[in-house]
């Protein structure tokens, strides 16, 4: 029981750190970044995935604090952990030198490096009671697909795209589609493997 209390405390603490980081960056953007738009800020996958990850940990903590488990909460935790892994990998490989409106060093560290690692370790080291099925992990892909569609539609209307590899105005539509397909292939391959990762922990 005491172990559960430690897990709840760490999850709540990390979630609050992420929320403070997002809030600090939002306030900094509003006060210091020329041409800053709140709608653009919340249109970054990084911001959305971090908020979802913090929510997932808080939900999981709510159940754990009462000594309960929830299949849907575990599935939410797995999905949000996967999205955070996407955030960390894509940022590291493609966006480390791009302007993604996280100029505050500690905020950038929390959102792009620390929290992806924390969510990965949380998923592997504290495995769910029941692992997601292949069908459930496949449903995780709906959100990234909808995000790309949303970004392209909104970009066509506003002329603003959250990431360089999605910028139709700079790269052209077909190049953006090819970029999205290339990233999508990697995501499709990784999602079932990620859902399976806790099994390694269980096998020990």
Distance between the termini: 22 Å
Please report the number of helical segments. Answer: 10
What Rg do the Cα atoms give? 18 Å
Secondary structure tally: strands:
0
Approximate strand percentage: under 5%
What do the pLDDT scores average to?
91
Helix content: over 70%
- Uncertain runs: none
How many domain regions? 1
Largest sheet: none
Which structural class best describes the helix and strand composition? mainly alpha
**H-E order:** HHHHHHHHHH
Anisotropy-based shape: globular
Topology:
Blueprint: H1 2-32, H2 38-41, H3 45-65, H4 71-95, H5 105-125, H6 134-139, H7 142-158, H8 168-171, H9 173-196, H10 198-203
Quick recap:
This protein is mainly alpha-helical and 204 residues long.
Main features:
78% helix, 10 helices, 204 residues, mainly alpha
Question: Could you explain how this protein is built, in words?
Answer:
The protein is mainly alpha-helical. The chain has one domain (2-203). Helix content is 78%, strand content 0%. It contains ten helices and no strands. Helix 3 packs across helix 5 (105-125), helix 4 packs across helix 5 (105-125) and helix 4 (71-95) packs across helix 9. The chain is globular, with a radius of gyration of 18 Å. The two termini are 22 Å apart.
